[in-house]
Amino acid sequence: MTQSPQTQSAQTAGYALQELEKEAGMGAMGEETFAREVRCIDLSDFENRKSEIADELWRAAVEIGFFQVSHHGIALSDIRQAFSMTEDFFSLPDEVKAQYPLARNAGWENKSQVRPSTKTPDQKESYQITRPLMAPLWPGEEELPAFKDTMLSFESQCWQLGMKLLSCFAMKLGFPEHFFEQAHNPDQQTYQSTLRMLHYYATEQSEQGMWRAGAHTDFDCLTLLFQRPGQGGLQVCPGKDLESQRWTSIEPREEVITCNIGDMLMRWSDDQLPSNFHRVRSPLPGEYQGARYSLAFFCQANKDVEILGPQAKYPAISAEDYLQQRIQANFAKV
Ligand SMILES: O=C(O)CCC(=O)C(=O)O
Ligand SMILES: [Fe+2]
User: Fold this and answer.
1) 195 lines ligand 1 (CB under 6 A)
2) Fe2OG dioxygenase domain: which residues (predicted)?
3) Alpha-carbon gap, residue 43 to 201, rounded angstroms
4) Edge-to-edge strand ranges of the sheet holding 222-227
């Protein structure tokens, strides 16, 4: 980094402001539609079909910003096991979970994320796993047997898939094929990719008139989102629909993973790849009113990695500074 700290933080603040202004206008209900297609890209025979898959991913990401992947290599039984552990974790008493409090992007929080779009707390609890920060944050084996091993192995599978997808984007951006894999190195202390377990409260435990997750774009490069059948509510607003605030509902399907580009890759791609708004709305009367669980894996470049696009549209910024400014805008205390 050649800039003085002062110039650097002024630019950081300017960019943060721009992102937040966009987000602040997105809190309304808007219009709902099922009409827009969210493409599902088949990843089978990945190594042999890589350039064709890369073309399909690029088109879906550029044109819509969201896509789903099928035949992605993570076994359904592993996904189900990760969800079962997630339910077990959130069933622990609050006093137990409170021993593992959220700091930066690891640990447990409860109704503490206030989105700039809604300015109200998301009606959820979450527990985030970020490898280098976990030592004081794992429940003991006696509290939750096999939790740590199961979730770490799932995290690793998510990382592998995330890196596969990012290698396709690297090729299309003119970076070396393994560029993003090197930037998301799980063996270093600077690793900051995160597996987030989410539990949205059943209607009776939620405050009325609030969002399960207010409209937002993700901070990361790429998000992989796993949903449970029958637990809907995720809605996306592809860039084209931003002005009209037309929201497309994504029907949860167990065998596909819903993916979206985050702000970090948008910046890294000089805005060629858009990060788009999404949210989780509360159930409407007549819909399933029970709890909703989801799992999200956020590919976030290691702290010391410099984010600079192929055309250098924006000044270089470290992934650490980039992420920190977005976390601060969302959580008061961390
Ligand atoms: O739970 C979901 O379906 C979405 C979660 C999400 O968008 C997030 O945590 O960033
Ligand atoms: Fe998100």
Assistant:
1) no
2) 190-301
3) 33
4) 40-42, 66-70, 257-261, 222-227, 292-299, 194-200, 124-129, 107-110
The three-state secondary structure class of 243 is coil
Residue nearest to atom 5 of ligand 1 (CA): 296
Least distant ligand from the CA of 232: 1
Give the whole-angstrom CA distance, residue 122 versus residue 111.
Answer: 6
pLDDT surpassing 80 at residue 332: no
pTM exceeds 0.90, yes or no: yes
Question: Which residues surround the ion ligand 2 when the cut-off is CB under 5 Å?
Answer: 218
CA distances to 165, 172, 227, 259 from 224, rounded to whole Å, are 10, 20, 10, 5
164 lines ligand 1 (CB under 6 A): no
Q: What would the mean pLDDT of 99-117 be, rounded to a whole number?
A: 91
Tally of domains within the chain: 1
Identify the CATH number of the domain in which residue 191 sits: 2.60.120.330
**Ligand 1 nearest-atom number relative to CA 227:** 3
What is the extent of the structural domain holding 236? 5-328
Task: Report if residue 334 sits inside a domain.
Answer: no
Tell the residue nearest (CA) to atom 3 of ligand 1: 234
CB 125 within 8 A of CB 90: yes
What does the alpha-carbon distance between residue 250 and residue 257 come to, in Å, rounded to a whole number?
11
Question: Which residue spans within 45-193 are E strands per DSSP?
Answer: 66-70, 107-110, 124-129
Neighbour tally for 51: CB within 10 Å: 10
Does 263 fall in a domain?
Answer: yes
Q: What would you report as the CA-atom Rg of the chain, rounded to the nearest whole angstrom?
A: 19
| Residue 333 forms part of a structural domain | no
Whether 311 contacts 270, CB under 8 Å: yes
Q: Does residue 114 lie within any of the structural domains?
A: yes
Tell me the CA end-to-end span of the chain in Å, nearest whole number.
Answer: 26
Q: Is the CB of 259 under 6 A from ligand 1?
A: no
- The span from the CA of 184 to the CA of 65, in Å, is 21
122 CB near ligand 1 (under 6 Å)? no
- Residue 331 pLDDT greater than 80, yes or no: no
